[in-house]
Amino acid sequence: MNKDNSYGLEINNDVVIKMASVATLEVEGVAGLVAKTTNIKEVFAKENAARAIKVIRVNDAIALEIYISVYDGSDARFVAEQVQNNVKSKLQNMTGNVISRVNVTVADVAHGEEAAEA
């Protein structure tokens, strides 16, 4: 945990991930979060959001990397931009931290039965 914002509050990375996942899933066109695995431990991790969102702290700023799936027929670039804007706005308002960047990678497209289930 790091001290965040001018109030000296500490916000755990897991909380930041949860906030970012809620803000991401609010955006129309997002089918879900996609787990990006970099090692075998992450393959068996319980929480999908923890593998789909990475928090990077530099000084007092927070940067995020988010991997999403979009619905077939959605404008992927527009959806990714909306995710960036929504996550940055919500996290800055909720935490008081500077969000230096939100990198969004469209890692999958949900179509057919996948889109109906998501």
Would you kindly provide a written description of the structure presented here, covering whatever features stand out?
This protein is an alpha+beta fold. The protein has a single domain (2-117), classed as Cation efflux protein, cytoplasmic domain (Alpha-Beta Plaits), CATH 3.30.70. Helix content is 40%, strand content 34%. It is built from five helices and six strands. The strands form two sheets. Strands 3, 4, 5 and 6 form a four-stranded mixed beta sheet that branches. α4 (76-95) links the parallel β5 and β6. The longest helix has 20 residues, at 76-95. It is elongated and about 45 Å long.
Q: What are the SSEs and their pairings?
A:
Elements: E1 2-4, E2 9-11, H1 13-25, E3 30-33, H2 40-43, H3 48-52, E4 53-58, E5 61-71, H4 76-95, E6 98-110, H5 113-117
Helix pairs in contact: 1-4
Regions with pLDDT < 50 over 5+ consecutive residues? none
CATH names the topology as Alpha-Beta Plaits
Count of discrete alpha- or pi-helical segments spanning 4 or more residues: 5
* Helix-strand category: alpha+beta
User: How large is the radius of gyration?
Assistant: 15 Å
User: Tally of extended strands?
Assistant: 6
Mean pLDDT: 84
- Kindly provide the name of the CATH class: Alpha Beta
What's the N-to-C terminus distance?
33 Å
Percent helix: 25-40%
Which of globular, elongated, flat, extended, rod-shaped describes the shape?
elongated
Q: Count up the domains.
A: 1
Secondary-structure arrangement, i.e. CATH architecture: 2-Layer Sandwich
Strand percentage lies at 25-35%
Q: Could you spell the SSE succession in H and E letters?
A: EEHEHHEEHEH
Question: Biggest β-sheet: count, sense, barrel?
Answer: 4 strands, mixed
CATH level-four homologous superfamily name: Cation efflux protein, cytoplasmic domain
